[in-house]
Amino acid sequence: MILARLRASLQKTREKLAGGLSRLFGIARELDEAFLAELESVLFAGDLGPAALDVLGVLRAEYRDRRLKTTGEVRERLRDLLRRKLGDAPPALRVAASGPTVILVVGVNGSGKTTSVAKLARALARDGRRVMVAACDTFRAAAIEQLALWAGRVGVPVVSKAAGSDPAAVAFDAAAAAVAQGVDALVVDTAGRLHTRDDLMAELGKVRRVLEKRIPEAPHETLLVLDATTGQNAIRQAEVFTQVVPLTGVLLAKLDGTARGGAVISIRERLGIPVRYVGVGEGVDDLEPFDPERFLDALLGERLDARTDG
């Protein structure tokens, strides 16, 4: 079921990547430089970006050294190289030794951050945890209303104040409420203005300090929401956020709406932090833990080693 949903969300990417690979490997032909050039074009069409150059560099070197002699061997080696770039399966979310586990969610406006907060709350609640959300994106009235609406749908309480309120004050109230009510997890939405604004980044730091003061070692996780439809451009956003807050993972939203799913590989490799979740649809339950093997199977359309050698 999970693989089927992930495959469906990656349909647009597969049309370019898996479709191109299927056409390339589906015809019996000799392995030569022309074949590798066509493979390079297919990988770039799937938005693998710099990862495509790295992979093709290895494949070309091994071809010239005669370690790869058939297109079938290239096919198997390609999957192996992509799998290595995705790294190990991400660890489970850190759980506080005592009291609420605090998950701070950051990202720019339009990335799908607020809906991702609600989906994450829903996923945690499905695991049997008592969850609360905090509407600390007070710069945008619509964000407060949107989060309240989503929180109602997933059945979790939300702590909020009027638009324009101090985000740190909301964070303080939410932390106090989470402790008082004995919730297991507090998911904190934050302002998503342009990541180049130093004052807003300072505000984010203030929110973190308030949370830590009220709940020791909070936030226990800091997740960056990235819009999958922006492909390689998402990496630039991520690099800025890593300079401001210690990120523990990425939540990749809108994976179902993009043909650029291959960017996940570059995101994982360039940032050095794990992709923890992927958004695979618009429903409240359309958030899945990231699994490298399943992702690669879905991205490529099927296991490459199941195809007939060329």
Give the SSE layout.
Elements: H1 2-9, H2 11-25, H3 33-45, H4 50-64, H5 71-86, E1 101-106, H6 113-126, E2 131-136, H7 141-154, E3 158-159, H8 167-181, E4 185-190, H9 198-214, E5 221-227, H10 233-242, E6 249-253, H11 263-271, E7 275-279, E8 287-289, H12 292-300
Parallel strand pairs: 1-4, 1-5, 2-3, 2-4, 5-6, 6-7
Antiparallel strand pairs: 7-8
Helix pairs in contact: 1-12, 2-3, 3-4, 6-7, 8-9, 10-11
Task: Give an overview in words.
The chain has an eight-stranded mixed β-sheet, with helices on both faces. Mean pLDDT is 85; it is low at 304-310. The radius of gyration is 21 Å and the shape is elongated. By secondary structure, the protein is α/β, with parallel strands linked by helices. 50% of the residues lie in helices and 13% in strands. It contains twelve helices and eight strands. α10 links the parallel β5 (221-227) and β6 (249-253). α2 packs antiparallel against α3, α6 runs parallel beside α7 (141-154) and α10 (233-242) packs parallel to α11 (263-271). The chain has helices at residues 2-9, 11-25, 33-45, 50-64, 71-86, 113-126, 141-154, 167-181, 198-214, 233-242, 263-271, 292-300, and strands spanning 101-106, 131-136, 158-159, 185-190, 221-227, 249-253, 275-279, 287-289.
